[in-house]
Sequence to fold (92 residues):
Amino acid sequence: MLDGEVRFKLGDEIHTGAAGSYVFVPRGTPHAWQNVGDGPARMLFHFTPSGMERCFDGFAALETPGPAAFETVGAEVGVDVVGPPLAQPDPV
Fold:
């Protein structure tokens, strides 16, 4: 985490991380994240092996991004969307 505060769901566990936090997501682990801070959040991603960054490039290039579009772009690089995004009332 570079800036802000983000809630992460990894499998069935939910954690919150602030600037300076590090989150490791093993390949194939269902996960989601949500900005829960008062301002913008910035995260730095590192993918090994590479290739996943194409999903974010594709999503950023969309004129009308949204959950369905993320699912379509993700499928092109092997991402399976398995559930809804986190909601603000999700337990911490």
About this structure: The mean pLDDT is 86.
